[in-house]
Amino acid sequence: MKTKVLLVGALLLLALALAACQPAPTSQPAPECPTAAPCPECPACPSPEPPPEPVVKEVPFQELWAASPHNDAEAEAFNHWNEEDPAEVPVACANCHTTAGYQEYVATGAVANPIPAPAGTIQCVACHNEATATLTSVKFPQTYLPEGASEPVNVEITGLGNEARCMVCHQGRASKSTVDNRLAQFGEDLDPDAVPAPITDSQGNEVKLGFINIHYYPAGATLYGTQVKGGYEYDGKSYDWKFRHVEGIDTCIGCHNPHSLQVKVETCAQCHEGVSTVEDLRNVRMQGSLADYDGDGDVEESIDSELKGLQEKLYAALQEYAKTVAGQPLVYNPAAYPYFFADDNENGTADEGEKAYANWTPRLEKAAYNYQMSVKDPGAFAHNAKYMIQLMYDSLEDLNAKLGTIDMSAMHREDPGHFAGSTEPFRHWDAEGKVEAACVKCHQADGVPQFLENGATIKMPPSNGFMCTTCHNSEEWPARYVVTEVTFPSGAKLTFGGVDADGNPVADESNLCLLCHQGRSSTPSVNRALAGKDPETPDPTIRFSNIHYFAAGATLFGSEAQGAYQFDGKDYVGANTKHPINKCKDCHDVHALEVKLEACAACHGSASDPKDPKTYRLDTTDYDGDGDTSEGISAEVDAFAERLYAAIQAYAKAKGTPIVYNPAAYPYFFVDADEDGNPDVGERGPVSYNAWTPTLLKAAYNYQYYQKDPGAFTHNPKYVLQFLYDSIEALGGDTSGLTRPVTPAE
Known about the structure:
This protein is mostly helical. Helix content is about 35%, strand content about 5%. The protein is built from 29 helices and 14 strands. α26 runs antiparallel to α27 and α27 (about 695-710) runs antiparallel to α29 (about 715-730). The chain is elongated, with a radius of gyration of 43 Å. Residues about 1-10 and about 15-20 have low confidence and may be disordered.
């Protein structure tokens, strides 16, 4: 062991010695770090491309739309379904209460699926898209069955502009056909005054007749009147068409700003004096609306007040009928569905706990529907007041057919003739869709201006009565058209203005009236139709010649116009211009058409009734020979006419074919073979008289003339007495006791 230790130590010493013998190390510098290549110089950052210009820098009309009812986020119209389960807008409502639904409906005609609620308000894209850009027609709830079709179709208004976008929704959700179809579900020949028995639906549930609601703001339905039948129109009645107002201001967007929805009051104020606010418009009453519609005796109040007066009367009638006929008192609440409630305590208020009205009869249903429409279109006074008046009047009349307690004697349904748009003179051509060229001048609102400009007329669509611009020149407003002279059917050129120093005719405003009130036949036209025919031989080729209606101008001008048939060898009086008041506008209110009785009474105060022109006399001559020289000249003329009709019937019978007259049915004279006083009826209806002789035709023409100018007795009584007398004489009738007026020497 000791030997090993010594060996290790020796080796250690040897190593140390060797190390000491080595040379000392020299100092070496540290190698340099390689230098990195310099960074390349970065190019300057490029400037960013300017953003593209927005297609629309500022949304047009955004502020107007944002403040409009279409964007009222708090409105019930956009929140009604939020709490439903599921929360969605049904397809039947989505087309008008959601933007997506409206877009889909306009593009495809239907909404396929409910829209999740809340769906938001009506946005710009609802009305501004490809589909609405080409929208020119709108279908309404009213349906009808076209000839040859098996399924009903909706009434469609075509040829529209941008207003079509409005009427997609503002048309209501019901119509006359809706009410009729609903009632039909409860059976045929329903008792109008009995509550129909319940029916069972397809799910086996019992269903009772309930209130049918037009829905809110059906302005389009009101505007287009009977063309879309938004109101309940009673069978056998005629109603006004679209209310035209004036050119360019007779559509939704013509009267309302399409974005704010506000009425363009500044436009209204151009014609309507005293209008500066929307409420001021409720004070307006036009010259074409001069009847006392609500029967309160006030024809100065606004048309809106007339509507409110009728509303009040209709509501009172509904309540009376509901209690006394239907057997359950009724009360109305315009703000609570379903609007009509059972007024159990009869306090006139829909109290909490009072249920929906249940005793609906067909008669009550129809009238209540119209009442609701009048309430839910608060702008009806401007949209189409006449149509709404007619609906309420007819509802009152129908309720009164059962009640018999409503005094309607002072109420009026129609306007004076020129503005009575629902009547036959303006509705006769509805089925054809065009007024014949020969009729346009006097039966279409634009007829007179067209005739005065061109000297002729062409076919035109029917109009809803006359307009202000029918007689007032729109280019020189409010001046009336200037008419120097008027050509009558006889060829005579006449004027109320007389002639100037050079013999030229002078214009007169009453000449405007003569354009239409001149008749359509004359002595020359009758002679042409009968030329070459034997006076006393019945000829089946002869057709009745009709003077037409209200030929007052021809009567007034007498022999100068030759409107009546003037027999050869007889003399006739000329124009009745010696009367101190002898022009149309002097005797008649040009808008209401009523006679200015105060002007008449100034001279006829001694008549038995100064307010009744029929009591006025010409002189003391007893023309009809009845010994009464105090009766009015009207009675004298009537007596002549009675003699003439008796002579017509006696003559016709003697010729082998008895005749009867009906003043209300074209062609007025009919065969009465059995002499029962009624027209004979053939396969095509009443048999027109077909055995005319020229003599009979002339006399019948004059009898019709007298019938169709109800004011003939005052327009030119001596002329009328003359041609009636001559007609009796020509037929061999009884003229004993009659005195033919003498034609005064010039």
